Amino acid sequence: MGFNKRFIIFLTIAIIMLGKLGYAQDKRDTDFNPVGCFISGFWRHISKVDGKECPSYPPCSTYSILAFKKHGIVMGWLMTVDRLIHEGKEELTVSPMIYYHGRMKIYDPVENNDFWWYKPKKRYPRYCR
Amino acid sequence: MKRVFFILTMFFLFQNVTGYAKILVIDSEKQFSFANELMQKGDFDYAILELKRFIYFFPDDPKVPQARCLIGICYMRSGRYEKARGIFSDICKSHRNDKYAQKALFLIGESYYKQKVFDEAEYYFSLLIQRFPKSELYDDTLYRLGWIRMYQDKWKEASKIFSQIRQTSPYYEKAKALAKSSLKGETLPYKSPTLAGVLSAVFPGAGHAYVGRYKDGCVAFLLNGVFIMASMEAFHEDMDVMGGMLGFLELGWYTGSIYSAINVTHKYNRKLQMDFLGRFKDNLYIEPFMGLNKEKGVSIKLRFNF
């Protein structure tokens, strides 16, 4: 069996296993999204390592799940890459710090990175007409 | 006989003492001022309770609409904006054309302003000016509209609105200064998000460097570089599937780094705008907001700090 074939088999098994684990944890969700479920499962495993070390809040793994849930696969992916790139100290120039679990973290939620293109369609009631 | 006399004396004595200690009369003024005191101390929940008690026990008191407004303000000051708007809306319905309707409209606008929902805030402030052009809150409303324009990055319009504030207003001097200095917002050195995106598309990381984020730029460049090289190497070694997968991943990194360059530019511009706005003080005084008639009694000075 050549390297390419082995690689494909390994990747397929990994995707299925991680997806299943993700699904097992997300089965209470009403809107089941297989790709989102895979990503969610994947990040859940990463977050165990990532959570404590990530200089930002929410940690990158949680951020990624939130971005995928909010904006779907394409924008979720772009926002995840963006977060991984801008995670360093340079972010401090434009984002505030918060105290979280005994450490100072850069507060950088999803809303901090989609404010310029995503306006939630909230309808407010009209008073005093 | 002596014993009976003694018991009777003690009975009347104690009855008097206990009866005297229990009687406490609170009139509407005392109740209202107590609620105000709590409000000024920041005990908003207790203030709401005491104001509700005031309305319950003194329903015919002329200060009842004032108390209702204050309940709304307490909700607003404690961050319960929806509840506050519900109260102001009721005031609007029951006082369609008097001063309390004006205040309710203003406070609904103010609640949206505090939440930074500027479109809604603008709607209510404009409605107030349109419906009550002679309102004593006219200048306060213009002042607020000016600030909304500044948050919306419309500096010229903000300056124009500030310059409309009348000389009789306590905001006149402040507004005059703001009309002048807000125009400086036009010259803020904003960076172009489009240019950042194009730069990053041509040379990954260049968009980040454009806004002064050199480390992020290096990270973006290295990530893209490594994946492009790995992909090319895989194709070169006839590992087409591997090359295709790496290429697909690289496409994600590439588009992600373009998005990142645009995003950090928007964040940079927002910071620039907020820093500029932070130079000005936005103190809105409504003085005395509720004790308008200057009648004998309590007058309240409200200060909104932003």
Compute the gyration radius of chain B: what is it?
A: 32 Å
Q: How would you characterize the largest beta sheet of chain B?
A: 2 strands, antiparallel
| Weakly predicted, low-confidence segments of chain A | 19-30
Question: Approximately what portion of the residues of chain B adopt beta-strand conformation?
Answer: under 5%
* Amount of helix of chain B: over 70%
Mean pLDDT of chain A equals 76
Ranges of chain B where pLDDT stays below 50 over 5 or more residues in a row are 292-306
Report the biggest beta sheet of chain A as strand number plus sense, adding barrel if it closes: 3 strands, mixed
Class by alpha and beta content of chain B: mainly alpha
Structural domain tally of chain A: 2
* Beta-strand content estimate of chain A: 5-15%
If strands are numbered along the chain, what order do they take across the biggest sheet of chain B? 1-2
Radius of gyration of chain A: 18 Å
Descriptive account of the structure:
The complex is a heterodimer of chains A (129) and B (306). With 129 residues, chain A is mainly alpha-helical. Chain A has two domains: 1-52; 54-115, no CATH class. Chain A has helices spanning 3-26, 34-53, 60-85, 111-114, and strands at 56-57, 97-100, 103-107. Chain A is globular, with a radius of gyration of 18 Å. The termini of chain A are far apart. Chain B is built from 14 helices and two strands. Chain B is mostly helical. In chain B, strands 1-2 form a two-stranded antiparallel ribbon. Helix content of chain B is 70%, strand content 3%. Chains A and B meet through helix 1 and helix 3 of A and helix 5, helix 6, helix 7, helix 13 and helix 14 of B.
